[in-house]
């Protein structure tokens, strides 16, 4: 019985959304085979030919390729350091462990890719389940199939417009699935936390929070949401988990000190590479962590207040994909604009900015409007997580990878809104024509 339940849980995504999952896997494999054998350049100009069996640096992946001995040495470095600000960039232990297992199995990253592809199915499932709970018209919209065809005698593929364009052909989601780093496992965990709260499985949320911290420092930004889940837990069970609260607080504080050196390196990189240098971001706006310590004129003091208040919203827009493109390239001469343009493919930047403008940002605005009338637990939790990241990244270089986990859900929300608006316009036109 337990074995059957385990198998059912493992295949839950395919059982829940078979057409979406199977079609997405087939498309992903077709693209990966072409990239692997024929080559394609990533957004930093790195040739990805043979990328799963040779050097793999997508999304700073090489920073995770450390032995388990090096991971253990990181802990010793932390314990023996008298100044945590100078311990350097220490990564979480989860990714090096997964990479080591992958290389142990086949001496390459193909097992890691298969694992990531499997996680992408959970991201799809979590996003659709959460969206169906939040969005008022989604279930009816998913019933209207745009594509339907048989692949074998007794099985057919049927896809709605939202499933096709919001997930399967979603370029940002595809990019981070095809070339995965820590973003995909982290996204699956964040969505898993929200999904677990949907089923009042609060204990799982606490465990998943701890696991997310082991993956990357931004897991700490989930702490406000975890406190909210503790509140939901109390309302549901009429019992406050005091031990759990202090345990999670202790783990959070320990993790904060563990990643403190990383945050110092990240902040210095923000000042150096974030845009204009010397304290201005890529938007030419003051970095809050830099300007807060400065003193001078009345204008500067006003700028301090404005930076602290409004930078999180600018960072939020940036992490949704609407940001200027950086001039970073993997290799080659970056001294002149022409030399950069010869190496760096800008198609990703164009797609990212357009998708962020017509999909991600409208989806967030739509969910905020829904929140006014429907304050469901999952929607509140989702918005709290998003804005926690916005505030937490106020003094960091904004990258859409930090909020990658919101991309499928926001795309679904936007398309749902667009199609509902189109339906209302058609009904209104029909009504006017009859009159």
Low-confidence stretches: none
Tell the overall outline.
Answer: globular
**Computed structural class:** mainly alpha
The string of secondary-structure elements, in order, is HHHHHHHEEHHHHHHHHHHHHH
Number of domains: 1
Helical content stands at 55-70%
Written account of the structure:
The protein has 435 residues and is mainly α. The protein has one domain. Helices cover 66% and strands 3% of the residues. A two-stranded antiparallel ribbon has the order 1-2. It is globular. The model has no long low-confidence stretch (mean pLDDT 85).
What's the short story on this structure?
The protein has 435 residues and is mostly helical. It has 20 helices and two strands. The chain has one domain.
How are the secondary structure elements laid out?
Elements: H1 2-10, H2 12-16, H3 18-38, H4 68-80, H5 94-106, H6 110-134, H7 138-143, E1 145-152, E2 155-160, H8 161-168, H9 171-178, H10 183-198, H11 202-215, H12 223-237, H13 242-258, H14 260-273, H15 288-291, H16 298-319, H17 337-341, H18 347-373, H19 377-392, H20 407-434
Antiparallel strand pairs: 1-2
Helix pairs in contact: 3-8, 6-10, 6-20, 8-20, 10-11, 10-19, 11-12, 12-19, 16-19, 18-20
């Amino acid at each position: 019985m337990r074995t059957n339940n385990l198998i059912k849980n493992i295949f839950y995504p395919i059982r829940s959304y078979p057409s979406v999952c199977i079609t997405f896997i087939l498309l992903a494999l077709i693209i990966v085979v072409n990239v692997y054998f024929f080559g394609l350049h990533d957004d930093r100009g790195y040739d990805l030919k043979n990328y799963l069996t040779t050097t793999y640096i997508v999304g700073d992946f090489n920073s995770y390729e450390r032995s388990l001995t090096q991971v253990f040495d990181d802990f010793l470095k932390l314990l023996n350091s008298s100044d945590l600000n100078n311990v350097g960039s220490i990564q979480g232990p989860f990714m090096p462990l997964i990479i080591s297992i992958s290389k142990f199995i086949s001496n390459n990253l193909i097992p890691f890719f298969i694992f990531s592809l499997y996680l992408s199915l959970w991201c799809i499932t979590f996003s659709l389940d959460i969206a169906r709970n939040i969005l008022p018209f989604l279930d009816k919209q998913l019933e209207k199939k745009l594509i339907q065809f048989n692949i074998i005698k007794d099985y057919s593929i049927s896809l709605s417009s939202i499933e096709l364009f919001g997930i399967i052909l979603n370029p940002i989601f595809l990019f981070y699935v095809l070339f995965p780093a820590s973003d995909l496992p982290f996204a699956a965990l964040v969505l898993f936390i929200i999904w677990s709260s949907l089923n009042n499985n609060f204990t799982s949320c606490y465990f998943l929070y701890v696991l997310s911290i082991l993956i990357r420092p931004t897991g700490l930004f989930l702490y406000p949401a975890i406190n909210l889940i503790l509140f939901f837990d109390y309302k549901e069970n009429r019992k406050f988990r005091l031990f759990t609260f202090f345990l999670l607080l202790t783990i959070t504080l320990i993790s904060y000190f563990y990643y403190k050196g990383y945050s110092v390196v990240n902040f210095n990189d923000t000042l150096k590479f974030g845009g204009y240098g010397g304290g201005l971001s890529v938007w030419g706006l003051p970095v809050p962590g830099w300007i807060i310590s400065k003193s001078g004129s009345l204008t500067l003091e006003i700028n301090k207040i404005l930076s602290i208040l409004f930078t999180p919203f600018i960072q939020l827009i940036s992490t949704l994909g609407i940001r200027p493109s950086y001039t970073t390239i993997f290799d080659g001469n970056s001294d002149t604009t022409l030399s950069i343009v010869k190496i760096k493919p800008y198609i990703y930047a164009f797609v990212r900015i357009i998708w962020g403008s017509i999909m991600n940002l409208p989806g967030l605005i739509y969910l905020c409007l829904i929140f006014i009338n429907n304050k469901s637990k999952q929607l509140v939790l989702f918005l709290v997580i998003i804005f926690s990241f916005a505030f937490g990244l106020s003094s960091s270089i904004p990258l859409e990878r930090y909020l990658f986990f919101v991309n499928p859900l926001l795309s679904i929300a936007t398309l749902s809104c667009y199609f509902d608006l189109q339906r209302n316009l058609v009904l209104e036109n029909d009504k006017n024509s009859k009159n």
